[in-house]
Write a structure and sequence with these properties.
Shape: globular
Mean pLDDT: 85
């Protein structure tokens, strides 16, 4: 998936190991979700990239898009079905990817 798990600051964190990496969450009811907020352990000035949230596959429909510094709103999905969400992280090519450490992903309700 493009991440390495490392013990950083006394806890396991995900560190980008490639320019593009993804995390999947399975069996998610999207009806009560408005957006996602991402927290990074050490984003230095100038370190940035893009996040895509895709539904039901890493090549699935894009339901949200943002950069590392903003929360990501998602398109309203109220189909009553459970879905898989794929968070695709794409670091800018001129950035040291080992400096991108994901601390948390927060789900915000409507």
């Amino acid at each position: 998936n493009g991440f390495e798990k490392k013990d950083i600051y006394g806890g396991d964190k995900l560190v980008l190991a490639k320019e593009t990496a993804w995390i999947a969450l399975k069996n998610i009811d999207l009806s009560g979700i408005s957006n996602f907020t991402f927290s990074f352990a050490n984003l230095d000035a100038g370190v940035d990239g893009n996040i895509e949230i895709r539904m039901d596959g890493e090549k699935g429909i894009i339901i949200g898009k943002s950069n590392f510094r903003n929360s990501t709103s998602i398109n309203l999905i109220n189909d009553g079905k459970m879905h898989s969400l794929y968070f695709i992280f794409k670091v800018n090519s001129d950035v040291d990817k080992s400096r991108v450490i994901i601390k948390s992903i927060t789900i915000d309700s409507k």
